[in-house]
From TrEMBL:
Residue ranges of domain CobN/magnesium chelatase in the record: 141-680, 701-1103
Molecular functions per Gene Ontology: cobaltochelatase activity
Alphabetical UniProt keywords: Ligase
Protein name: Cobaltochelatase subunit CobN
Organism: Lichenicola cladoniae
Amino acid sequence: MHLLVREIRTLDEQDQADDLGHAPADIVCLSFSDSDLATLAAGWDAMPDGRPTLRLANLARLRHPMSVDLYAEQTIERSRCVLVRLLGGLDYWRYGAEELAATCRRHRIPLALIAGDARDDPRLAELSTVPAPVLARLDGFLRQGGPHNVAGALRLLAHVAGREPDDGMLPVPVPVAGVHRAASLDGRPVATILFYRSHLMAGDLAPFEALAEALEIRGLATELLYAASLKEPEAAEFVERRLRLTRPRVVLNATFFSSRRDAAGSPLDAAGVPVLQLVQAVGSEVAWQSSRRGLSQTDLAMQVVLPELDGRLLATTVSFKAEQASAGLEDFAQVINVPHAEGISLAADRAAGWARLGVTSAADRRVAIVLSDYPAVGGQIAHAVGLDSFASLSAILRILKGAGYTTGGSTDAAELTRRLCHDPATPYLSLAEYAVLFATLPAAVRAATVDAWGPAGSDLSVGDGHFTLRHARLGHMILAVQPDRGAALDRKAGYHDPDTPARHGYLAFHLWLRTRIGVHALVHLGTHGTLEWLPGKATALSAECLPSALLRGIPVVYPFIVNNPGEAAAAKRRLGAVTIGHLTPPIVGAGTHGAALELERLIDDFAASDGLDRRRGEILRGEILDRAESTGLLAESGVRRGDADDADALARLDAYLCDVKDLQIRDGLHVFGQAPRGHRTLLEGMMRALPDADPAALSVALDASGPAEAQALLAALDGRFVEPGPAGAPTRGRADVVPTGRNLFTVDPRAIPTRAAVLLAEKASAALLERHRQDQGDWLRRAVIDLWGSTSLRTGGEDLALALLLMGVRPIWDSGSGRVAGIEIVPLAVLDRPRVDVTLRISGFFRDAFPGQIALFDQAVATLAARDEDADWNPLAAEHGTEMPSRIFGPAPGTYGTGVEDRLARGAWTDRDELGRAYLDGSSYAYGGGRDGTADATGFARGVAGADALLHVQDHAETDLLDNLDVAAHEGGFAAAAASLGAAPALYHADTARPDAPRIRSVAEEVARVVRGRAANPLWIEGMMRHGYQGAAEMARALDALHGYAATLPVRFDQQFELVFEATLGNEMVEQFMRETNPAARASMAARFDEARRRGFWQPRRNDVGLVLEPDAS
């Protein structure tokens, strides 16, 4: 019997090994908490002469297994007693705890392992070597805290170390929560600051004192509370009771993690007001200043992602860590939290903004409702994913009017469309006024703006000495189209550009709202705008980050489609926004139409006659195939007449027609605050993914979504708390996302990929490998996978899991927490196929949100490259002994997109090679293995040129690859790049909308399927026509995406252009609809069809196409 060895690597091995150089001591105390170490140091300083020797160390320096081994050998083996206090329990330091336990048992050293919070972990007691009564006393001393108890803990440790007798002292109870400073209840709005009791015990209160002072200056009566932990029932009860008593207008929270108690919510919910999450960075200010991400992976998880589960709104960093020398201890510098004045000012502004909103009556509130101009092409004003913006704007104005807001003028959607889309822009701010406001911005922002755009008077929106804007005033409501971030010709590229500042007109608009109008809140209607993508850090923004500089304290309320967690997270983390999830559009089966419907009927006739009249059957089969060939459907089904026998050709045609018929398409758009028109079809879509669900319960939740969205908007604008809720795709089985109308949150990135994601990815990886073998006759050996952050959040990391599985690697998880702990290499004998050398092309949001997953994948690459395996079976093994190139690439730090989107949108390119070079230029930054955006054009080009295939995954039915140019830029950009390098890899589009039955199609097949099933489908077009201007815009977007594929793929799409033309501008009724409701979109479509003709992508069959496309035809 042969035992196969499975190689395992843990994520802790990614950390830098650290030699602390500590000499042995009587007592060694280790903790992740700087406050623990500070109080122990203070307690030791207070001990009399002759005290035991003491070593203190932060466990963050002992994450790497080699660091643990070295510390155990150099320090622990010859020490006399060891105390380890683990915040979060065993799962946060499993290797270290187990190694220390083994060392201490081997050398008979007393070891006490205790939990660092209110949650007991019996596993720690099992690893400890001190008697249970001693362990309980130590736990009690440190859990209670305070000088008296810390002194008792140190004397007990001295006894355990054999240095003095046990004095029998027991822990003295200390309040688990309390009031550090009560607010003056003098009629001013109250702001409550909550921090850990450990800060009080350590005397580490400077950041909170400074914040309290800043809030008082802004007119808020400030109360400071402390609590040992919000998971501690007694502390939670006290905080709840105190919040109900003082009724603050805003809460500023400095505790970590989530404190939700299942259905009971968080103790902080008791106030019923916004809770701002303060960040106390574990790193230095210098590190933060130089970081594009803003926060470390640990800070991001503990102080951003997990608090979002409670519905908290991110503020920014109010303190940084700094060392302070200890008077008597060797090798120890106390780490304290140093106030960050800039961040404290920003946090205080935001708190004051929410408090001001809450104390202002509805009739007096001034609210700006902003509509996007993304992606800034003709006829696309107010675009929002899945949302009819103007119908929603009309609905919101009616909701606000009913709640007592001052809304003058007509709220009719058509009238609003006319005023904001068709009427000319009007003046709103003079250049002289702007000069005064511009001078208030940070000096760095002013300098960068002038350097990029010149003087304000040259801005494209300036006329007669004033900035102009598409906007309307209705009572106290300001309705406005978000200005271009950059010059009109460059604005699509500029949306996600991290370095180029917004132009003067953009700054003027937001400064005008904040200072001249004095808006109480800004509502951005729909997914998504540009404010959250302005230059600056990904999280924990500085005053010089443009979102902070422009908003300061304006509360942002952001209706956001519920299935887009990634971009919602960007709005939450960079704007501090309340992201109110709204429903996706209704979903309906595409069915068949036109030639496909006729063929379906003929195939039914053939099936009925099969076996009854053989001759008639053969005639019918020939007629079916002839018609299918003449209409292009046979080619779409992957069959060339003569390459397969007629029986096989008919079977494949029938399968393709069924595939198109089963395509799920949107039946119109959602209107915010209203029950879905297609309730039944959306319910059916969810039931397909959840066959065991209760349809009655789902129906009730869907019915409740519209009213819940309206109530959440009113709550946010009242300065009240909005309940948190998960983001996800309803049609992929996410019943928990309805009812919508909740503040969206995402998953803990440390758990990605989840166990469920790996199980589902197994099916997708098997389907991909099988499809490639069918197409190429050989195993897939090298692949590039397009990895997006939103997809990873929705699916729990199925794409990343698929990449690992292709390589013959599986994640391993911590048994207690469920977080990913490392990787396991599957032996080739078990894998029974060659490993795939996978290169990841990651999105900008993935880079920002998943540093741990980047490290995990990089660890898999390095481990495989070092294995002694034949290069034919492990392509990475050929890299062994060389400097390991990266297999993770993406956009430059702080940038987003591929660099292809803009060129496609504007038609600003000469040939396919230019688009390929743009993709390479926008994707050639290496990550992982110590690289954090290192330019490596050669490395990425080698990965693209050597790839056998590209894979992009579409994980739900609520979108497709023709929704916008983004997917075309990624898939087509790669194809163009590969072609420019002389390669022709397979291009695969994985459809995992039904994760139990994934489908792998070529990109060209998927384009044809979606054109036939949606873009040229009368059912979809009729649904869009119900939405006027917005529906016409959606038709234009589908054509733009099709054109993007024609520009980048080595495939002709004549048939697809023909189908879309005949269904839109070639259809008299549809053309008239577009002419009347959105002439700009009609003109955009005409120009795009004409461009396709000029570039040779489309040879129209009709002779009158030119007349239809004439500019004056509209």
